[in-house]
Amino acid sequence: MRSLGSAWLVLLAAGIAVVLFWFRPGGVSGPRPEPVPVEGKGFEHSAFTKVLQAVVGADGRVDYAALRADPGPLDHYLGQLRAVGPGNAPHRFKTHDDRLAYYLNAYNAFMLAAVRDHCPITDVQSVYPGGGLFWRISFLIGEEEVTLSALESELIRGVMQRTPAAHFALIKAAKGFPPLPREAFESSTLHAQLDALVKNALTLPQIAHREGDVLKLSELFNWYAADFDPPEKEWLRARVPALVEGDPRVEYPPFDWSLNGDCGTGG
Questions:
Q1: Which of 38, 79, 92, 105 is surrounded by the most beta carbons within 10 Å?
Q2: In a shared domain, residues 162 and 34
Q3: What is the DSSP secondary structure assignment for residue 35, as one 8-state letter?
Q4: Which residues contact 54 (CB under 8 A, 6 or more apart)?
């Protein structure tokens, strides 16, 4: 009996080890295109703008099938991100806006690549259990591995300085987010771009709308409440006063994680 019990313990330990290995953060390698040299003294993102204008429609839907059919332009930009980042080339990213624009673009580019490489899918939550697409797949920034979750929680939040607008700029391939912009972020125009994103987002029903005395807000406001200073109602009052007129009750409808575009057959 003792040997039988020991055998079960060994099997249990082996099973736990397999589960931990399978679900380890960064355990799945994302695309690894060859490094692409970046010209100039800074880092401009025109290569990503070309990708966005090719695959993001006027309605904001993303043509992931087109990304699969012609992966070269996105892989070229991923190669630039691999070659140069704030970690291995800090002299190229001297300002807060330089770093934030880079990280926001990197996030959206990695998101496009992750969906592209897992089509056909109907929502990003289905790629790996427990939202594993965000924390299991690793990408390269300046030759350092990073997952989408780490990029958001460590790098982006590290330079955001409580910038709520940035949460409307990370488009996680789901209809619950605003549409993906058709131009990459550039440090020289970052604030104007983020202001325009917020202005547009607050016109979208999936972000904020009134139903009688109820203000229905995206769960983005709930997830990132600590970054809204002043709190959400006062923040909204300064931008769209009609939304909070009469002090409505706030509700957070379930987030729509269905895919924000076409992903080939079954997508």
A1: 105
A2: yes
A3: P
A4: 66, 70, 73
169, part of any domain: yes
77 phi/psi in degrees, rounded to 5? -70, -40
Whether residues 167 and 247 share a domain: the answer is no
| Domain containing residue 86 | 28-179
What is the count of structural domains for the chain? 2
Identify whether the C-beta of residue 220 lies closer than 8 Å to the C-beta of residue 175: no
Q: Say whether both 47 and 173 belong to one domain.
A: yes
Q: What is the mean pLDDT of each run of 10 residues along the chain (267 residues)?
A: 55 40 63 96 97 96 97 99 97 95 98 96 89 94 96 85 84 96 97 95 97 97 90 95 96 97 71
Other C-beta atoms closer than 10 Å to the C-beta of 26 total 16
Question: 128 in a domain, yes or no?
Answer: yes
Residue type, 229: D
- Asked if residue 224 and residue 99 are part of one domain, the reply reads no
Looking at residue 129, its pLDDT comes to 84
Whether residues 232 and 116 fall in one domain: no
Dump the DSSP string for 200-222. Answer: HHTTSTTTEEEETTEEEE-HHHH
Exposed (0-12), middle (13-18) or buried (19+): which is 11, by Cβ within 10 Å?
exposed
Identify the pLDDT of residue 154. Answer: 87
Structure confidence at residue 17 (pLDDT): 35
